[in-house]
Amino acid sequence: MDAPKERWVGRDAGPVVRPYAMTRGRTRPRGAAIDLVTILVATGQQPGDRVWLSREQRRLLELCRQPSTPADLASETDLPFQVVQILLADLHQYGLIEEMRQSEEPDRPDPRILMRVLDELRRL
Amino acid sequence: MNSAASDTFGRARFGDADDIPQHTLKILVAGGFGVGKTTFVGVVSEVRPLRTEETLTDASTGVDDLDGVEGKVTTTVAMDFGRLTFSGGVRLYLFGTPGQERFWFMWDQIAYGAVGAIVLVDTRRLSTSFASIDFFEQREIPFVVAANVFDGARRYTVEEIRGALDVDPEVPVLLCDVRRPDVARGVLVTLVEHALRSSGPR
């Protein structure tokens, strides 16, 4: 699937599809925002008949078949972080994606992981 | 090592490949306009650094001088994004965010659970970094100060900069040229070391 094509009518006008059109005008996600580095993965559930997904959401869902983060997904799709967060929050609410737990204490990094990072940074 | 959940999710389902993220870490790169955030993120990132224009609403209430533009409800802000991958599925993400107070609601989100922050300062305009430093001090987020040495800027010593910024003695202050990859990585090392030191009583 290709990234959404942007049509430009002139340099000053910008893309014809404004980013927040993809969120149907919403500037905040339903519920709490998913952290930009939360690891997300598709649950494998099918959207079902009552759920309508936009092209961007179908693409995000496809990408989530491999575990990924909102930050990486934004990079992959060239969409602003906040737009991606809103679209992902929908997918999460529909039960199509879930968070992979990383640590008991999400509010602080694991010192053992930091030690590993430090070792590798020093060796670079 | 972390929890049963990460084992059953991460390894059993996806294998232990390094290209599957299993642990993610965040670092903020803060600093005023033109101080070198984009350069820093670009130099250390292994992926093509992403620069997104985030459209923000109600971000500038009470901060921007809105005289004459009262109808303006959105503003855009450039965010720099970079990534480093380590073994065992560990990924370190860098987010370069503007230093002005009106973007702090976004910082709060990025700062949650972050390793810490790198405050890039321009020695010709030190006062533009006061707000960033206050932000991290108040939230007890470990940070280092990296004074980007620009050509032609008067050289100050680390002690002069520390004194002018009035940061705690344990906060590392570095003079550096962030265009050099080894130097930029050294700033990351200093921050992670500092974060580990301060992680005990936090």
Automatic annotation (TrEMBL), chain A:
InterPro entries: DUF742 (IPR007995). Pfam families: DUF742. This is DUF742 domain-containing protein. It comes from Actinomadura litoris. The lineage of its organism: Bacteria, Bacillati, Actinomycetota, Actinomycetes, Streptosporangiales.
From TrEMBL, chain B:
Keywords: ATP-binding, GTP-binding, Hydrolase, Nucleotide-binding. It comes from the Bacteria. The keyword Transmembrane helix does not apply. One of its GO terms (molecular function) is hydrolase activity. It holds the Pfam family ATP_bind_1. InterPro entries: Gliding_Motility_GTPase (IPR052705), Gpn (IPR004130), P-loop_NTPase (IPR027417). PANTHER family: ATP/GTP-BINDING PROTEIN-RELATED (PTHR42708), GLIDING MOTILITY PROTEIN MGLA (PTHR42708:SF1). Belongs to the GPN-loop GTPase family. This is ATP-binding protein. The lineage of its organism: Bacteria, Bacillati, Actinomycetota, Actinomycetes, Streptosporangiales.
